[in-house]
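Long-time lurker. I teach an intro course on protein structure, and each term I like to show students one example going from raw sequence to a predicted 3D structure in token notation. This year I'd like something fresh instead of my usual example. Would anyone be willing to generate the tokens for the chain below so I can use it in lecture? Attribution to the forum is fine with me.
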Amino acid sequence: MTFGTALRDCHARHGHSGSSYRTFDRTRPQTPQKIADNPAHTLALSPFILGEVGKALAYPRVSAALGITPDEIHRHIDYLRRICRLVESDLAIPVVLNDPKDDPIVYAAVGAGANVQCTRDHDFYAPNVITFCRRYGVEIMDDVQLIALLGA
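-- Reply from a regular --
Happy to contribute to a lecture. Here you go:
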């Protein structure tokens, strides 16, 4: 199974400092690691997604909550680059109409032939985005749903 993911969403969820989300390992978040540990699965990312992860983790509020340094963020991005299948994709028609900046994430999942697009971004759950993704065999899930699927 191949997974495209907006990891900034999954990382933010598992990096939350609240007691119910203390599962974040600063160097290997749970969702990407679960995928990487299973040879039947592939984590597909794009340079755009890796850049977005780096930006999200570098937000002062996020980095303070996680207690991570810029060096740790760089190491984490390098780690993700090592465990993923890096894909480039061409953009075509706009898909995420509420936030066109998210189109590269959708097209990376489609270009990778992903089965699942992992995100908590509500814009990905718009009916037109779900329809577009399903046309290419991609289901939209959040990190909790994906972890449940992986555990099944």
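Some talking points for your students: The first strand starts at residue 2 and ends at 5. The helical segments are 7-15, 30-37, 47-58, 60-66, 70-83, 103-112, 127-135, 143-151.
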